[in-house]
Amino acid sequence: MPALLTADVSPAERHARRSPRDWAVDVAAFLIAIVFGILGFVEVVQVDGFTWLRIVDLAVGASACVALWWRRRWPVHLAVIMTVAGLFSPATSGALVVMIFTVAVHRRFPVVAGIAAANILGAALYFRIYPSPDMSWPASMVFIALFTVAIVAWGMFVRARRQLVISLRERARQAESEAHLRVEQARHRERERIAREMHDVLAHRLSLLSVHANALEYRPDAPPEDLARVSGVIRESAHQALQDLREVIGVLRTPAQRADGAGQPALEELTSLVTESTQAGMDVTVVDTRTDEGDPPPLVDRCAYRLIQEGLTNARKHAPGTAVTISLGGGPGEGLRVSVHNAPLRRHVADGSIPGAGTGLVGLRERVDLAGGLLSHRSLPDGGFTLSAELPWPR
């Protein structure tokens, strides 16, 4: 019965596109209205007989039943009209019951309460004009009031259930949208991670290649021994760059390694990094004043290594031939202090200098932020440059 009398939340749209279920509901509502209307009509005819007023009653009742076709579009308007018609037309009672239920399904409680109260008052006047042969006027009013309240409660229950279903569907759609958004964000973060790893690894190696290639370009008359040595360094650097690239791709493809950072360099490889830079002609000095109380957390350790690597790469690009000082300090409970300082450039950089994309410091800042540290970089008054970070190192 509830399914047969329900109406959709969007009446205008459902009226324009009536589904097979809507047809079944409308037919059921029409039949219910006819049954209730005939019962009311027969009861009055048994008391007053069949007069010309009953012919009008039948016509009004039939019109009310046909009007149920538009009950979804104009529920309140039709309910008001049928309430007025019900004052003298018992044949309208069935259609009026359907309209009260429809209003309860589609409108808020104040409107529903107004329609219900109007019908109860109308019924009070009707039973004064046409008393029931089986019940007294007070008993008739109690029955009508309880029946109306039951119809309204039924309709409000259907309305609440529909709103709950709509809310759950909306939450499901929202959850699905959020899931898609999280997937897109994860993809974006992965792309950024790949770009950052590629920059950190390849920029250092390729800058070494560029330095040695420049040496060959500007010293074509160098002794064969020097040319062979530089060519060997270039070959070794290229091989190492390919190896680093394979390691980075392997780390990015393996979830377990992505989680624990396996395969990524740390400060224990600082000596190798400094040696490579020294072989490329850089003057690098390491000042390590850390307390000898173990290693910092892995995330901080890798972040410090990447900062030093980025500092050396930038010095090689923008200040070739200058002295570079790497400083490490701090300890557990104090934090880890890392800085890379290059002296001012004393000569003009050739046009064939190593190009830069300008994204290294951006990616490095993101690394430091993720590690919970603070990155700073500044040009000094004498023309030098300092890149430094304060990283957490708990006890």
UniProtKB/TrEMBL annotation:
The keyword Cytoplasm does not apply. InterPro entries: DUF7134, HATPase_C_sf, MFS_trans_sf, Sensor_HK_TwoCompSys, Sig_transdc_His_kin_sub3_dim/P. It comes from the Bacteria. Keywords: ATP-binding, Kinase, Membrane, Nucleotide-binding, Phosphoprotein, Transferase, Transmembrane, Transmembrane helix, Two-component regulatory system. Coiled coil: none annotated. GO terms for molecular function: ATP binding; phosphorelay sensor kinase activity; protein dimerization activity. The chain crosses the membrane at residues 23-45, 52-70, 76-102, 109-129, 135-157. Gene3D superfamilies: 1.20.5.1930, Histidine kinase-like ATPase, C-terminal domain. Pfam families: DUF7134, HisKA_3. It catalyses: ATP + protein L-histidine = ADP + protein N-phospho-L-histidine. Residues 190-256 form the Signal transduction histidine kinase subgroup 3 dimerisation and phosphoacceptor domain. One of its GO terms (cellular component) is membrane. Residues 21-162 form the DUF7134 domain. Its EC number is 2.7.13.3. This is histidine kinase.
